[in-house]
Amino acid sequence: MTSVRLDLTDLPEALTGALPDWLPGQRWFAGKDRPVLGVRTRRLTVLRAADPALVLAVVEVDQGGEPERYQLLLGARPELPDWLETHRICDSSGWGCYDAAHDPELAGELLGLIAADREVEDLRFTPEPGVELSTGLRGRPVGVEQSNTSLVYGSQYILKLFRKLVPGENRDLTLHRVLAAAGCAHIAPPLGSISAPDGTLGMLQSFVEGAADGWAMATASVRDLMAEADLHADEVGGDFAGEARRLGHAVAEVHADLRRAAETRLATPGELTALVAAMHRRLDGMLESVPELAEHAEALRKAFDAAVAAGEPIEVQHVHADLHLGQCLRTPTGWVLIDFEGEPAAPAAERARLRSPLRDVAGMLRSFDYAAHQRLVGHSDDHQLTVRALEWAQRNRTAFCAGYAEVAGDPREHAELLRALELDKAVYEVAYEHANRPEWLPIPLSSIARITSGEEPS
């Protein structure tokens, strides 16, 4: 470490030149499908000026249409060691600037600022009321995230840095606070936050040590079934149905806690009409680019319209809104749900909207279907594997709904709405796979065919 201090004078220009090429290579950058037309620096807040320096930056990215804001955590050193060279972003005034999420020492600075309840310029680093945090811990990034960056501190804390920023308090922080106040047993409690006057930059939580990822557990169960030539899903040692039932129970308890602690009401007729109209618009947007969807269009529209035609009252509330097996962690004591931010691609106003809890149920049903069929990618003509995948999916879908019904009403009693929501999610999956993983496209397309033909009950 030297006594030299970082000079920010040239940094905005350096970032403007480097970021159009650097951003598309980051997993969390949402605009990979469009060229970066320009970048403007909106914030440079020095959190540590001496070598190694730490700067929290907010940049505005122009890709046509409304510019989007992203958070960068910049480290800077006069000389970058070899282990940081791969994370270099640009050079400025003789300093090498890099992604500080990969610097354990600088990541630890953020935890120290939250623990000290510090204010730096107009940024607030704040522990939750009554929380006392350990300090001196170094941070390391979690390597599996897509839309944000999380730093783990020992076995105690995890700090999520929100990369794509939205105005106001982030929904993830809001709902975690609501659920913590309600005594919810199925979340990692919030411990602190980083905020600016116009929004949330980070959320600190308890780290769930020893947790198993729900997707990994489910796909391991599918693998075990596929390896057995003669046994059914309920006869294989890795049967997941018991966990699926417990997970359904946990999701229903989270919904119940949100129902008690936050706003709940009946959807208006106009909201239901708007919901179905949005489903039709999503379908319309995909028909031209994915010709394989055309043969299902009429059946999809009938299913969407049936959700309103049923005429049943629909209760809406705050829900997870992007629930799948990858958002569920199995701990030694039960299931924990994470990432209440909502669908990453959805506008902030849409994420904040109250929804039917069946939206989350539909997301989980789709996730079970994906877990079952992902091993068929490239082997869709294998009849035996297909039969086993369908058996596993239906067994676990049924178990999840049964566990949910132990706490709340049985979601299968609202068949028309649940079917429409699942099909809408499948159309979204068609869009995603078409753009990112064309070889996976048969998974949502085959599901649409089964659901619309009545072969696969919700």
TrEMBL record:
Write down the EC number: 2.7.1.175
Q: Which reaction does it catalyse?
A: D-maltose + ATP = alpha-maltose 1-phosphate + ADP + H(+)
| The Maltokinase N-terminal cap domain, residue ranges | 22-103
Q: Which of the seven top EC classes does this enzyme belong to?
A: transferase
The pathway noted for it is: Glycan biosynthesis; glycogen biosynthesis
- Keyword vocabulary terms for this entry: ATP-binding, Carbohydrate metabolism, Glycogen biosynthesis, Glycogen metabolism, Kinase, Nucleotide-binding, Transferase
Look up the record and give one Gene Ontology term from the biological process aspect: glycogen biosynthetic process
Q: Any idea which GO molecular function terms this record carries? A: ATP binding; kinase activity
Question: Subunit details for this protein?
Answer: Monomer.
Q: Which family does it belong to?
A: Belongs to the aminoglycoside phosphotransferase family.
| Designated name of the protein | Maltokinase
